[in-house]
Amino acid sequence: MIDMGSELSTGSRRDMGREEQIKGMIFDIKRYSIHDGPGIRTTVFFKGCPLHCLWCHNPESVDFKAELMPRPQLCAKDCFSCIDACPEKALSKKEGKVHVDRSACTLCGVCADVCMYQALEMVGRETTLASLLEEIEKDRMFYEQSGGGVTFSGGEPLSQPAFLEALLDELRIRGIHTALDTSGFAPTDLLERMALKANLILYDLKMMDEEKHKEYTGVSNRLILENLKRLAALKREVWIRIPLIAGVNDDEENIRQTAAFLKSLGGIKNVAVLPYHRGGCEKVKRLDKEDRFRCFEPPSAEKTEAVRKSLADSGFNAKIGG
């Protein structure tokens, strides 16, 4: 680790003006994560994604702007102070709960500010490079003790390249391990540049059939597959993550094609099977986006284990979760 009193750190402090100017949009920071790379990690969730996976468990991550997400279970009976506070009159009482007129809401956040019960949440906030680095540094002790670091997830971090690159550069100077969690849907030169700066790439591989990929994510998988080939050629450390959705990509043919493709790349060792859960369904309702996403049945434990075993039998270090 680099001594924070070193010349590099002094130089970093001299660039605080630059750090205050570089900004990005995030929607969450999760500390003490043990599922987003090695050791104990701080996972920073970027807001905005070019894909629209129908099963997304973080539906609040897709749009690039801030969003208002009510928590009706926390709303106090007969309070409704938010209704009076809303300057656009976008809130009303409906069936004993606060109703949001999305067409009138300007996302000013006043309602969330006045709600003492946190029943209204603004999802997404702009932050500066300096502010986020300060948050990350609070957990340095855990990184050093566990071999952990920082993971950038989303959303899609590559959709905010300037902010991501500045973070990767600064954390490299500070000696903090970085992992980039990506869908791989980004310009190849951008992905390669970021991959050379990050210590680890967590790469989502959803399905091999292009038409099904378009149907369920909104985009072709051609660029994603080509980018993974390029990463393998760069000899970067890549861990594959396969979100497993029953009836979508859990069939034997897709798993067979996935394993064959990964074997053809050479150098890919770690594959994680991530069984779908319905945690995003409630958030979809709270965002009034039921027409944009779907709830699926989670794969059975037996099916998930069968997929893991199939990948392990193909020579990969395959596990469930993480």
What does this structure look like?
With 322 residues, this protein is an alpha/beta fold. It has two domains: 7-63 and 125-320, Aldolase class I (TIM Barrel); 68-123, 2-Layer Sandwich (Alpha-Beta Plaits), CATH 3.30.70. Helices cover 37% and strands 22% of the residues. The chain is built from 13 helices and 13 strands. Strands 7-1-2-8-9-10-11-12-13 form a nine-stranded mixed sheet. Helix 8 crosses helix 10. The longest helix has 14 residues, at 252-265. The chain starts with 6 loop residues before the first helix and ends with a strand. The model is unreliable at 1-14 (pLDDT under 50).
Instruction: Summarize the biggest pleated sheet.
Output: 9 strands, mixed
Tally of DSSP helical segments: 13
**β-strand amount:** 15-25%
CATH class (first level) name of the largest domain: Alpha Beta
In short:
This protein has helices at residues 7-14, 16-21, 81-85, 110-114, 129-137, 140-146, 161-173, 188-197, 210-217, 222-233, 252-265, 279-286, 301-313; strands at 23-33, 41-46, 67-70, 91-94, 97-100, 120-123, 125-128, 149-153, 177-182, 200-204, 238-244, 270-275, 317-320. The chain has 322 residues and is of the alpha/beta class.
